[in-house]
Structure formats: C-alpha cells, structure tokens
Write a structure and sequence with these properties.
single chain, mainly alpha, Growth Hormone, Chain: A
C-alpha cells in the first residue's frame, strides 16, 4: 500500500513551491494515513461481503430444508439491491453530515444484526424482508469509503489504496467459501440448528463487533485527526488543493450533473459490470455443482480458487493502472474478459466439462472483479463537491439494481428451462456492453491521472 510519488516530479516541485516540506516527508505522511485507515476499512468491507453472499452457500441446503425453489432464492438474493437502491444516496449524505465513524458504525452493526436474524427465517416473506434490510443497512458503505478517501488522499496516491480496499470483496469470497462449507458441515445439528443457520449466526457476530470498534478507530476529515500533526495536515491540504487546480472545471451541482449524459453513461457501465459480478457471487457455487462437484467442502475450495483469481485481478489491474496512470482501457479490457469468461462458462456447462467451467469462471472472476476498483477512479474525474458526494451513491445504487435483476433472471430461467446456460449467455452480453460503452464514451484525457502541478 505504498503511496510514493517519486515518479511525479511535478508534484514535488509544486509542493516545494508552496514551502510544504520535501517529497519524502509527504510520502511518510500519506503512508501513515494509509496504514491508519485502509486495513480497518478493508476488514469492514471483507465482513460486509461475507454477510452479503453467505446466502449463496446457505442455498445449497437451505432450499431443500425450507422446500423453496430457485425462483424464490433468486428473488431473495436480488432484493438485497432494492434496499441498496433506496438508501444509498441518503446514507452518503448522512456520512457527509455526521462523519465517517458514526455512519460506518451504524451501517456495520445494522447488517450484522440482520445477518444473525437470517438464521430464524422460515418463510419466503421473512427471507425477502431481511435481505431488503441487509441491503438498506449496507447501502452507502462502498461509495461512502470512496468519498471518505478523497478527503485524505489525492488521486495519484488513492488508486492502490482503493484497489486494496475493494479487493476485500474477492478475499471474502476466497476465504469465505471454505469457511462457510466447514461451518455448515461441522455444526449441522448442533443445538438443534441446521448448518446454514449456524453460518448466519457465526458470520454476523464479527460485524457487530467491528461496528462498535469503528467509532474508536476511524477519524473524520484530516483537520480533526489527533494522530496527525499540523505539518502533516498541511501536507494533505497542499496536495488536495494542487489536484483540484490541475483537474480544472468539474461539475459541483448534482442536479446539474443529472442533466449531463456522462453521469448516466457511467451508471450504465457499472450496471453492466455488476450484472456479471452478481452472477459470480450468487450462482458460482450452484454452477460448479452442476458439473459434478457435490461435496460441500470440495466445492468450498474450488470456489476459493476461482475467487482468488478475482483478487489477483483486482490487485494486479490496480497496480498496472497506477503504474501507467490510465483507467479507460484497464477497465474496458477487464470487463471484456469477464464477459468472455461467462460466455465460455455457458458453453462448457452444455458440454458438462468440469475443468472448462472452473477455468472459465476463474477468467470471468479475474476480469469482472479486476475492473471494479479501476472503474471507481473515473467518476471523480467528472464530478466534485456535492455532485461527487451524491453522484457516487447514485451510480452505485442504480447500477447495483443489476444485482437484483441478474439473480432473478438466472433463477427464473433455471426453474423454467432446467439449465443456466441461457441466462449466462444473456448476462455475458450485458457485461460486454460495459466494454463497448467505455470505449465509445469515456474520454481518454479524463481517464488519465492528472499530473499535479500541470
């Protein structure tokens, strides 16, 4: 999580001109900020994803225990994103008003409690209600953290930090899969609880604890950080001011940005990426089981390997994007690989080719997940101030509706046709549209990291 700007002499010269210490001193300041904030924020995002997607493993026995269909599961998995849609913008506005530590505490404790309550679900209506509430509580976490980091780190220091944070979603899938499999097998029947019930209880409790800890670990903007000296706060102010001048005019009013087609294009791009990601997350285990991996523990390790490719994609693509100071093609190509992986998965499912399905899902995971942290570098090149606060939440909330529609689509087509191939092909086409839209509508100049002092 290095934040060095040694390759950016413009930044050094500009800062020297303002009398704000040397490059080495400023690097130490930003390294301190990164190590203070990013590990804990990454842990919170890790827990969020554990609690969001453990339903994908619970499904393997929960559906038969409760006698539910794929359509019921698909609706419940997807309704999470309806809660996201309605509460994400208000949550980001509350973060700006009340600060990060109070907002993240509320978010984390809330979804942890809901995750625990999932253990007592008995009817589809209860399932839908709790999944909606989980989405409502978690709403605002990712765009809130993205916004929060803009208060601390300029863009040329933020890319790798953001990639590390976002990669927690892939890490949660990588480690969460074998953990979920172990908990379900080891604890099934203990205390009269099914394995999937213990899964929800045990994985919800750490989130509740992390929410309480957030209040003491996080600080609100740098000016209020007791662990930064006045000189270190000046380093932050200097580099953020330099970046604001180098980016030139950006839209400040959210209402004005709503009239700008670029905001809607950015939202549609992320919608297409989320469609592919939700498919991997909520149906990955079920798809692998279709080709003969029936043992839950074995399935857990197979999924861990697939999601490990997603983590490698995030970190690797983030590193390359920062090194080349370019985001347009790093996002477009990664999304295209994600779509290709889903298309190949549909083909190999039809052939009942286990190795082909696993490798194709790994490719899709690397591409789809690898595009996400790079994508989030684009909106701040077009928006600032209130437009950025609300715009990040707007993009994430609307785009995450794809997380509602894609599980619904797969569940419906699986129930009506008995196979996943048709749904996977449709979702692959949707994700491919992200690549097309990026190539056609994202400006190459805007998608390059601005050189401070330029």
């Amino acid at each position: 999580m290095s934040t060095s700007t040694a390759a950016n002499p413009g930044a050094s010269a500009a800062a020297s001109g303002t009398g704000v210490d040397s490059l080495a001193e400023r690097d130490l300041t930003f390294r301190r900020i990164v190590w203070r904030l990013i590990p804990f924020l990454t842990l919170v995002w890790f827990l969020a994803w554990i609690d969001r997607v453990n339903v994908g493993f619970a499904k393997l026995t929960m559906m038969s225990d409760l006698q539910w269909s794929d359509a019921i599961y698909g609706a419940g998995a997807g309704v999470f994103f309806i809660g996201y849609f309605f509460f994400e913008v208000p949550s980001n506005m509350l973060l700006q008003k009340f600060g990060a530590k109070k907002t993240i505490m509320r978010i984390t404790i809330g979804w942890g409690v809901v995750c625990v309550l999932m253990a007592w679900v008995k009817t589809p209506l209860q399932f839908y209600a709790l999944r909606f509430l989980m989405g409502a509580f978690e709403a605002g976490l990712q765009p809130g953290v993205i916004l929060y980091l803009t208060y601390w780190l300029p863009a040329h220091r933020r890319g790798k930090a953001l990639a590390f944070f976002v990669s927690a979603s892939a890490l949660s899938l990588m480690f969460g899969s074998p953990i979920a499999a172990y908990l379900m097998e080891a604890l099934g029947g203990v205390g009269g609880f099914r394995g999937w019930q213990w899964l929800f209880v045990i994985e919800g409790i750490p989130s509740i604890v992390a929410g309480a800890v957030a209040y003491f670990v996080l600080s609100d903007p740098p000016a209020k950080a007791r662990w930064l000296s006045a000189r270190q706060k000046a380093h932050v102010d200097s580099e953020l001011a330099l970046e604001a001048r180098s980016l030139g005019h950006r839209e400040h009013s959210f209402l004005a940005s709503m009239r700008n087609p670029q905001l809607w294009v950015l939202t549609l791009i992320f919608f297409c990426i989320v469609a592919g990601n939700a498919t991997l997350v909520y149906y990955g285990p079920s798809i692998v089981r279709e080709v003969g991996v029936n043992d839950i523990k074995t399935l857990g390790w197979v999924m861990a390997g697939i999601y490990a490719c997603g983590w490698i994609g995030m970190i690797g693509n983030g590193y390359l994007s920062d090194r080349r100071k370019e985001v347009k093609w790093h996002t477009a190509i990664a999304a295209g690989l994600g779509a290709l992986g889903l298309l190949l998965t549909a083909y190999f499912l039809g052939q009942k080719n286990m190795a082909g399905v696993i490798v194709s899902l790994a490719l899709s995971s690397a591409g789809t997940m690898g595009s996400i942290p790079i994508y989030w570098q684009i909106p701040s090149r077009y928006l600032s101030a209130t437009a950025l606060v609300v715009g990040l939440a707007f993009i994430n909330s609307v785009a995450n509706l794809a997380g509602y529609f894609s599980p619904q689509l797969l569940g419906y087509l699986k129930s009506s046709t008995g196979q996943y191939a048709q749904g996977l092909t449709i979702i692959a086409a949707v994700e491919c549209m992200a690549t097309v839209l990026i190539v056609l509508f994202v400006s190459r100049e805007k998608a390059r990291s601005p050189a401070p002092g330029a």
